[in-house]
Amino acid sequence: MILAKYLLLLSGAAHAFVVPADQPNGLYAVVTQADGQDVHIPIDGLSNQEVVEVIAAHNITIPTTKPNLPARARSSSSFVPKKERRDVTDTVSCANYRLNEGDCDAAVNGLDNNCGDSKFLPPGTKFYYVAGSVVAYMCDFGRDGSTCSRGLIDDSNRRITSSCGLYVAGWRTQQGPTWWYSNGYENRGDGGFCG
Fold it and tell me: Which one of 31, 117, 124, 138 counts the least CB within 10 Å of its CB?
């Protein structure tokens, strides 16, 4: 039994999630169950504790592999504390297409406002806010989980805009010794996110 659980955990490599075509605007958590199926859970208006409880009620697999980053990615480590910089990767990637400005603002602001001062993402959890044609997201791949906060989202959005351009799709991925996350914004119909 222990071997079966171990093999299941190893098979839970980071995979992209797809926003269902008929998904209404709002904030969602995505968890990958042991059978590999993604479950999209509406979490608009839930407290941090309620989000953790709702997510814990699902059988989550923890990703064990790093997603592939495109060769066009640019790197920097200016966001992380100096003492951690040697062990940290910080990459911005651009998708090189423009987004609907109103939808982009609504999606980014929706994620930003819902993360607020701090919202914990348990290991392997993905949050996204969909607004019209745009999805703003934050995904955890680390073993300790991540904290989604207004400051982190704002800093990442500035870095993405600086690297990719205003209203151009992009994402930022950071990885340290025990934490690893990615966040950004793209068209909702572009296929998978965070994979």
Answer: 117
